[in-house]
Amino acid sequence: MGTVRIRDVELAYEIHGSGEPLVLLHGAQSDRTIFTNVLSDFMRDFRVLIFDQRGSGQSSKPDMEYTIAMIADDTAALMVELGFSPAHVYGVSMGGMIAQELAIRHEALVRSLVLGCTTPGGDRAVTMVNEAIGSSHSTEALSAEERGGALARTAFTKSYIDQHPELIPALIKSRREQPLDEKGFERRMNAAYAHDTYERLSDISCPTLVITGENDALIAAENSDLLAQKIPHAVLVKLEPAGHAYWVEQPEQTKEAILRFLLES
Question: Which of these CATH numbers, 3.40.50.1820, 3.40.50.620, 3.30.70.240, 3.40.50.300, describes 2-128+181-264?
Fold first, then answer.
């Protein structure tokens, strides 16, 4: 792991593998470790950059207003500092929001784009509100048991949870060992809620793959339809059965779709 000063924050990062540069962008309440189990899918063909965004993991968590554009600008500055441009960019959930802004604001840095389980935001987005979502992504102080259980019900289909009874205890254990920084998480969630690229999606000019789980209970799959419709020549892949964490429920299909796209882009 390394750290580097980017603008007003210290960002923790790792680089793995060799080949063309690939940047992975994590979601709202995760950090770079969410990609640990999929790094091997990419390291043979790509030099992969993972990092903790502002407000998460081991990076700085300034108590100030965050925006998706701000985090996209952090990402662009980090890519330039580390020589990761132009790069393939793969973002999941909030990371997909950041990836959209990065491709719009810093077109020359992005060679291709993979947008996973994400949304354009704004009034056109399809929102889903239920008890599990409210708990898993609440900015209130919650116990590890409350947040871990709710996160499982948000991120995975019921059938997958039933088939993997170890899942909820593992998520609870993980959240107990790595509690959220509540203020940083609140700032990040506020940025995600304000995200809106809908009217600017046609400005994305690079090859784009939109991928999601058909049964996503956090960010409705219809949002991926919107992205694919608005981004010129975007390719859409929906996996089923799969929830928000589609790459866990359908690992082989996910790997095949993303690697094929990246290697052809």
Answer: 3.40.50.1820
